[in-house]
Amino acid sequence: MKPAIVILALALILGLSIPFGVAVVVTTIVMPAAYRSAIDACLPVQDEPGLPRPVTLSTGSEALDCIPGTGELPPGPDGVCPPSGSAAERGLKPNALRALRCVKQRFPWIKYMGGVGSRPSGYVSDHPAGRAVDFMIPAWNTKAGNARGWEVAHWLQAHAKELHVKYLIFEDRSWRAYNPSAGWRAYRYPGPNPGGPTQRHLNHVHLTVYD
Length: 211
Fold this sequence. Notes:
By secondary structure, the chain is α+β, with helices and mostly antiparallel strands. It folds into 2 domains: 1-30; 35-209, no CATH class. Helices cover 29% and strands 17% of the residues. Strand 5 (165-170) and strand 6 form a beta hairpin. Mean pLDDT is 75; it is low at 2-8 and 10-69.
């Protein structure tokens, strides 16, 4: 094989592999350790930016997890939503527990959720009291993932009365059920590292409910 061909082949391999590797490393470093396990196996298609796909080929139902939302909201909660099987249910107040189960029922592609947990001192949070749930969004840093996050947020907004929603946070915005006319207002995390994707609520939809 001629040297020029060998050099060209190596350049092509490096050109395709380096951006992918860098993207994975950067995403892993930026996301806090507590949420690293919530990174879904969906990455942007190399020649179709913004459209996610599974990293490995699959013919099972998990291959559907990376398909963008349709833009149409699913039906609202109907009666008692079934248990989700998630450890995030532990310690939640009744309204938060029902909301978690109903969201999981309507959006089965959500694989990771956060419930009761500690927060930095001096920062008021509803998580320690069991009134808040975080719904992690697969492929949140893609156009399709972001659309899915808003699908969840808008569904919760549409059914705020049924699910006793107090407020929602997603993508630097918050919506208050007790002041709905204000719409989605700018939000800034009051704790440490306010510029991180978790603190900005880019990778998850936050829900707080009334007792």
